[in-house]
Structures are given as C-alpha cells and as structure tokens.
Amino acid sequence: MTIKCVVCDLTRERYHHRHEASPEHAAKIFLRETCKDKSSCVFQVTNDEPGSDELLQAQLQRSGLISKPLSPQSPQIMELMTFTDYQITSSATAVYPAVNPIIYCALGLFGETGEVAEKIKKVLRDNNGEFDADTVAAIKLELGDVLWYLAQLATELGLSLDAIAKANIQKTQDRQKRGQLGGSGDNR
Q1: 175 Cβ contact partners less than 8 Å away, ≥ 6 residues apart
Q2: How would DSSP label each residue in 3-26?
Q3: Residues 54 and 103 in one domain
Q4: Is residue 187 part of a domain?
Q5: Pairing with 4, which of 72, 86, 109, 149 sits 20 to 30 Å away (CA)?
Q6: What is the domain count for the chain?
Q7: Which of 45, 80, 115 is the last residue of a domain?
Q8: Domain containing 108: what range?
Q9: In 3D, which of 115, 117, 42, 116 has the Cα closest to residue 81?
Q10: Within this chain, do residues 92 and 66 fall inside the same structural domain, yes or no?
Q11: For residue 133, is it left (φ>0), alpha (ψ between -120 and 50) or beta?
Q12: What is the pTM for the complete model shown?
C-alpha cells in the first residue's frame, strides 16, 4: 500500500511491521512523522498488494476514514478531521435546553459513557469477553455520542478540543519522562 499526502506532496510506502497494524494507523503515523501542514492533509491511498483489497477496504471503512471501496483504477481520497473541525461541525447539531448547558452536556457525557460501559459489560457477561463485529459497530456509535457530548461540553466552557488534546499529551509525556505514569493525583 502507498500513502500519499496530496497537499504536502509526500509519499510513503506502508511496511508491514508491528507498529502499523492497520491502514488508518499507517496514515496517522505518516501524518505525525512526515506531513508539514497536519491540519489540511488529504491522503490518497493505493493498494498494490495482490489479494488484500477487501481487507484494506474493510479496515479503512471500519475506521471511518473512507466510505466507498478502493480500486487500483480509482484511488480513494481520505481526509483526516481535526478535533477543531469536529467541534465546529458538531456544534451545528447542538440543540438542548438553555437552562444550564454545561450541566446538560456533562450529564449527557456521563450517560453516553455509561452506555459504552454497559455494552462492554454485556460482552463479558454474554460473549465470554469476545468482541464481535456487531458489538464493535455498536460501541463505535456510542463512542461517537461520547465524542459529541465532550465537544459540546468543551464548547460551552470555551475550550478547544485541540488544545485539550495537546495539553493532555504534554502532561502524560511529562509524567512518562519523570516515571510518574502510575499512581494517582492530578499533580503527580
């Protein structure tokens, strides 16, 4: 498989090793390590491995990075959405009581997170801890609802999801450097 960012005009062959378990992971590594303008990258993915078209298509569709099949004749263009893009786009559907939107969004976030936990609990109870495709698809939908409420809560608080994500990465990387990933407390 070849991944090309048509904005940055950079190309990368995807090599099969343990750090690139899926095409979407390969695209994310490519974005992180190679692309110059990460906010506007558009990927063209071509599959040049015989017999793996169906697997590649399924992996990319499952991840939400593409919506239609790949073919050697028409490479698929996929665009990675930033947190800011999502936050802005999702706010157009934010219709809820204005009594206290922060509390409303927080309660929605708790409720949707509980629905994710409930589906996972049922996998343990009913399916011996094995996740089938239908369950993963159902959890994906619930995680989308979690993301929606998280975005609305951040918006109501005047926060950027991109800024939250960057701050969290900086915090966890700092803890890792100091050997403090384990334990408890916000200021460890």
Answers
A1: 181, 188
A2: EEETTTTEEEEPP-STT--SHHHH
A3: no
A4: no
A5: 86
A6: 2
A7: 80
A8: 84-177
A9: 42
A10: no
A11: alpha
A12: 0.58
Cα Rg for the chain, rounded, in angstroms? 19
C-alpha–C-alpha distance, residues 10 and 36, integer Å: 9
The residue whose two tokens read 């969290």 is 168
Question: What gap in Å lies between CA 23 and CA 25, rounded to an integer?
Answer: 5
- For the chain, how far is it from start to end, CA to CA, in angstroms? 43
Sole residue written with tokens 């005009």:
9
For 43-81, give one letter per residue: b (16+ CB within 10 A) or e.
bebbbeeeeeeeebbebbeebebbeeebeeeebbebebe
Cβ(31)–Cβ(80) below 8 Å: yes
Element (H, E) at 56: helix 53-63
| Ranges of H-type helices in 127-159 | 133-156
Cβ atoms of 80 and 6 closer than 8 Å: no
Residue with tokens 């309660």: 107
For residue 183, being part of any structural domain is answered with no
CB neighbours of 55 closer than 8 A, spacing ≥ 6?
none
Copy the structure tokens of residue 126. 């009913």
Q: What is the pLDDT of residue 136?
A: 93
Looking at the structure, tell me whether residues 111 and 44 fall in a common domain.
no
The last residue of one of the domains, among 33, 64, 80, is: 80
